[in-house]
């Protein structure tokens, strides 16, 4: 992990948190979740404003994936409220569908549909969920494939692409739904080192376009460059949250310090 | 700077003689060890003992001339294909069409229309596959029934109880296969459903049929089913067999499909969920295409088993290909020639089962996109 050439760059300002609840993109209050008797998320409170970019880090098993998977109801929570894009996530299927349409998710292992071509991967949901006419969906998909810099792979199948290319297709697939919020769960940790930067470049580009992003990652260079806030989780709790400069130069909590010393050591 | 090194590629060479060719193959596969060599010699001897007499009997010395058994009786060293020739219509189409050869164009027309309608489904560039498939599956069975059954436009009626032979085998197997596939898929989905009632019902239904032999199912369909209906309602015997076969077959299809569903990684479901696809769309577009591809060998196995098991309808008095062949050889006219009858039936069964098995292999290969995840 290097952190050169990022020091000089201007750290984005912390956006002013609007006190008005209606304007949060994501509003989590008193969230608790258990797997059986295992208390995996403990009293999570988190507000994300529109356009904010948040990086979540923490040791393995600390509940990072679980937290962001609660945001589009891939996981159910037992206590507390989660409001995403002004819709509360409950058992109501209609609300869940509404949220999922507005929230894109990128997985560690890409999860592309192997039996569909790259283009079909990108157009399936717009056509069948958003009811976009097919021609328009294809044009949109090509636009986003260009944006992730692989329009020439449109007619290939996922199995024919490298890991980095597959992850970029996965990002394009999510973008094709025109989401307002993007969730990333360790999008580069399954990639060979030489492919990490091509995916991070796309994510940086996306961050600069004003997308609201929650990103679980250990790419600290990425965090320093684009994050408005870094959140550190441990044992299911949010232990510390701060602007990246503060977070990396001046971690307050001893657990954060330990984590940072481990992760920056090599 | 000194001269740069220029690398020239070595030309490809043909492999040394011992590494390729028939001698190498034989040495590696047939004579690699003492037991292997003994096996090879024994097999060659067995073939030498079996094949020439069989060829002599079935082809060289066989009888085909004439229309009665006199020729066959005179030449006992050859197969009596005269019998099959004379009774061909009865064995292929059953009693009604055997007795009314001028009507045989009806099942033949139905069969070849079906073949003609199915062919475009396999042509890549044909654009109306969905509509045509729907026509073949939903409308065509009625047309075929009207044609084969008759009773309109002056066509003599061929009662279903008089359908038989290959015609009956084909009707029972194809309708059973086509009707059981969607039912089996629904049952497989039901068995993995999160709704306890749906899941419980599916498990109960599947295990009920899987735990019962087909012969029992057919017997119950024939004897018990009418008890549930008022006395006046007479249920067609073939229809009863079809219902029994379909329900039975659907349980096996369901289990084959379930194996495929289990092989789909969780990430595929999650990605589909995250994109906002509803349950049915997720299943239809993402999960089933992948799961069915994995289940093809299993599904085809159940089809082949069903195709052969249709012979069990003899228990309810229907005469399929096998039973009709046997029946034909039992009258005094052709008594003693049942070997020919069985061989002929076996040959027809083999053609269809082998065809299905090859087709499933092709389908698997053409669906393989060369991916791993
Ligand atoms: N379905 C599940 N059932 C039971 N326990 C689970 C389940 N999923 C996750 N856990 C447990 O919950 C804890 C948090 O898991 P989570 O995947 O959120 O961690 P993480 O912070 O994303 O870790 P990593 O960095 O390894 O991805 C872990 O201890 C894990 O073992
Ligand atoms: Mg994780």
What can you see in these coordinates?
The complex is a heterodimer of chains A (266) and B (373). Chain A is of the alpha/beta class and 266 residues long. Chain A has helices at residues 64-70, 93-102, 118-128, 134-147, 163-175, 193-208, 220-226, 244-249, 254-265; strands spanning 24-35, 38-49, 53-57, 79-84, 87-88, 103-106, 181-185, 212-216, 229-234, 237-242. Chain B has 373 residues and is mainly α. Chain B folds into two domains: 22-60, no CATH class; 79-100 and 156-371, MetI-like fold. Chain B has helices at residues 21-29, 34-60, 70-74, 81-99, 105-118, 129-149, 165-191, 196-210, 214-223, 237-262, 266-274, 279-309, 321-328, 338-367. In chain B, α5 (105-118) packs antiparallel against α6, α11 crosses α12 (279-309) and α13 runs antiparallel to α14. The model of chain B has no long low-confidence stretch (mean pLDDT 86). Classes of the chains: A alpha/beta (266), B mainly alpha (373). The A-B interface holds A 72, 74, 97, 100-101, 103-105, 107, 109-115, 124-125, 128-129, 157-160, 173-174, 177 and B 265, 267-268, 270-278, 281, 285-286, 289-290, 293, 367, 369-373. Residues 35, 38, 40, 58, 60-66 of chain A line the site of adenosine-5'-triphosphate (ATP).
